[in-house]
Amino acid sequence: MSEARQIEAAIYERLSKVIDPELGRSVTDLGMIVAINADAIETKDASQSYDVTVHVELTVEGCPLSQTITNQINGAVSSYPDATLIPHIEVSSMSKDKLTNLVEGLKAERKHNPFTKPGSKTRIFAIASGKGGVGKSSVTANLAATFAALGYKTAAIDADIYGFSLPKLFGVHTQPTNLNGMLMPVTAWGVKLISIGMFAGADRAILWRGPRLQRSLEQFLSDVWWDNPDVLLLDLAPGTGDMAISVAQTLPNAEMVIITTPQPSASDVAVRSGLVALQVPTTVRGVVENMSYFDHRGERLEIFGHGGGQRVSEQLTHALGTEIPLLVQLPLQPEIREVGEAGRPAVLDADGALSDSPLAASFANLARQLMKQPQPMQSAQ
């Protein structure tokens, strides 16, 4: 084998480590590397130099992550140690037939809802509340960002169809890429996201009833390429309506986290969300008390009262016959709203790492508590 052919083979091997950030597979496995051509360059000294042209076919024209992929390919070629290689990347898009075959192969691997298949390791946490206004979506966003910052492959579904807010909290203004009928979730702050709020017309009032709500959840689960995340969070609509029941039925391995605030008007209603577990198969993992207190010049002010999270914990423990702990008490902090509405979860710094704030420490502790518990056994599907 000539040296040029050896270089081509070596570069192909290196490219097998380049991962498509949306599909989570190597560009070679996905058939994106069409050809590699290495041509020797005449030099005046004894050094070995080659022009290396890599022909790449992206899944769709105008792929939003094309620059990321080409940068990784350039890096893989340039890092070759045994000769000086000058990379050239020629980019095109797959033919319709090739893309169809690729998508059908990926869909065949999943066979509908991938989170209930035997052996799934994804931890699914459904974030629920009895009423609106308790900061459920803010908790979901910050918890998801915390999981991602701790190194977990994290995904989140905005299952609050009527009151979606995750796109705004993550600063998302783009739509998911439609890959021949399979959607690529939008990634922001390390979290893969999907929400009805990402689609055209989502600013209008949504008037959906039970069957269509359940179908929307099924589509979010089966028609989106999630690539086996470690953690999936669902931001549920408040109360015990159709979507909460659909989640319990569609994802029997989901673990429910109940959000409340300290005052009785919130905690009494929050108990009802946990009592769903008496009627449909789901595990209640614990209670989060949000807006527990406000630190003002060294004084801790309990603006919304005291003890709501503990009351929910005790009542659910008694009703369900198993320990439902109060997992954490989160403070009332204006930064959560201010930073969140600007499109960055408040637990993160501007570089996307966990900040050194007490709030970030509280969410990190919550994330570790949730992952420490054993994963529920899946029911037969």
Describe the protein:
- The chain has 381 residues and is of the alpha/beta class.
- The chain has two domains: 3-94, Fe-S cluster assembly (FSCA) (GMP Synthetase, Chain A, domain 3), CATH 3.30.300.130; 123-372, Rossmann fold (3-Layer(aba) Sandwich).
- It is 34% helix and 22% strand.
- It contains eleven helices and 15 strands.
- The chain has helices spanning 3-15, 66-78, 96-110, 136-149, 166-169, 210-222, 242-250, 264-274, 308-320, 334-341, 358-372; strands spanning 33-41, 49-58, 84-93, 123-129, 154-159, 177-179, 182-184, 186-188, 191-195, 231-236, 255-260, 283-289, 294-296, 299-301, 326-329.
- The strands form four sheets. The protein has an eight-stranded mixed sheet with strand order 8-9-5-10-4-11-12-15, with helices on both faces.
- Helix 4 (136-149) packs across helix 11.
- The chain is elongated, with a radius of gyration of 24 Å.
- It starts with a helix and ends in a 9-residue tail after the last helix.
- 38% of the residues are buried.
